Amino acid sequence: MGSIDRYIFRTTLASFALVLVSLTGVIWITQALRGIDLMTSQGQTILTFLGVTSLVIPALVLIISPIALMIAVSHTLNKLATDSEIIVMNAAGFSPFRLFRPFLYATCVVALLVAFIAAYLAPDGMRRLKQWDADITADVLANILQPGRFAQLDQNLTIRIRERQPGGLLSGIFIDDRRDPNERVSIIADHGTVVKNEGGSFLILEDGNLERFEVGKRDPALVAFGRYAFDMSKFSNQGHDVALGIRERYLWELLSPAVDDPGYKDGPGQFRAELHDRFMAPIYPFAFAALTFAFLGAPRTTRQSRNFSIGSSILAVFTLRMAGFACSVMAVKSPLAPLVQYLMLLGAIGAGLWLIIGGIVVEPPPALMEAINKSNAHLMRLFGRLAPA
Predict the structure, then answer these.
(1) 234, 13, 15, 34: which is closest to 133 by C-alpha?
(2) 191 DSSP β-pair partners
(3) Do residues 290 and 356 lie in contact, with contact meaning Cβ atoms separated by under 8 Å?
(4) Rounded to two decimals, what is the model's pTM?
(5) pLDDT band at residue 389, thresholds of 50, 70 and 90?
(6) pLDDT at 44 over 60
(7) Which of 173, 177, 153 is nearest to 164 (CA)?
(8) What CA–CA distances, in Å, run from 151 to 140, 144, 145, 236, 334?
(9) Which of 92-101, 139-148, 153-162, 243-252 comes out lowest in average pLDDT?
(10) Measured by CB atoms within 10 angstroms of the end CB, which terminus of the chain is less buried, N or C?
(11) What pLDDT shows up at residue 1?
């Protein structure tokens, strides 16, 4: 790349990174707020909360990247036009397609990023999120044991905790165990923690008392302990299997699903729709970049013409993406819907390249500009009359 290409390439990628991080951060915060109960009601740490909620970021990046690229291309072209650099390069003999070349390089980088996320990173994050969420919500100690409530885990086993503290610490623990018909055990502990290992799940109680009532004996046996392990393996779902959905499958799993896969048997159309979505994800950046440059890449002499082009590019990209979402939904039942989506993307890329190579400037219709000018003049006269009053 020449110096001009490197300048435009760096500017576009820097703008893309800034927009991508900003949009992803805002949307991630709105998604993360839904999982705030991990810390409040289930007593998980802030690190667990951030770890669980951040696993959805690759899936967000997959959707936001083409939009961020469109904004970055628009920003770069607007910057070049404001500084009159597009006009200078056009006067120096740069053809529109020659100017589009560094934007094409940046689009290739974004497309490779999107392809990697669609094939591996996004489904890997979603399946980790599902497994992690299942481990947290399925564990009786994190889900059923609520502070201040008596939880009956078994017919003759009741447990109560006073409160949860950061780090998974449980304080004010009371256990009433009557599962053995020959004795009744009551345990009171100051605090405790949950430990999971190969032997199972244990509630480690510290600084408490154990009172055992045996059948046939008048007085109970009272034992003070510093540390006591209460077996909770029966009530823990550690190591349970989690059924993977469509979005948790890697690309190669969608290409060749197992014949006996229950998910594929129940919904082959969903596999088809998701597979084509993964294939088309890296194509959207090319379509968005081509359409945006086709509307904004030509030299502009008036601000109204550039504003019209910006609005037209946004409308074209929005229409294309909404049509893509509609085709993805219809692809579940119709095998022809993905074909329509491919044709739309290729048509958008072809139309954009045709406008770029031909040097065609997309201008607003004269009638529309005349109507806008008349409307502006009418508003100016109206505000001029109201100003003295």
Answers:
(1) 34
(2) 171, 206
(3) yes
(4) 0.70
(5) very low
(6) no
(7) 173
(8) 10, 7, 6, 14, 49
(9) 139-148
(10) C
(11) 65
Counting other chains too, the contacts that 48-56 makes at CB distance below 8 Å and 24 or more residues apart are 48/136, 51/132, 52/129, 52/132, 52/133, 52/136, 53/28, 54/28, 55/125, 55/126, 55/128, 55/129, 55/132, 56/28, 56/31, 56/125, 56/126, 56/129
The tokens for 151 are 């939880």
**Three-state DSSP class for 79?**
helix
Q: How many residues does the chain have?
A: 389
Q: Give dist(CA 290, CA 40) in Å, integer.
A: 47
pLDDT value of residue 135: 65
Nearest to 197 by CA among 230, 173, 233, 171: 233
pLDDT in tens, 260-284: 777 777 777 888 888 889 999 999 9
Antiparallel, parallel or unpaired: β 157-165 and 169-177: antiparallel
User: Do 69 and 110 meet the contact criterion of CB atoms below 8 Å apart?
Assistant: yes
Which amino acid appears at position 177 of this protein? D
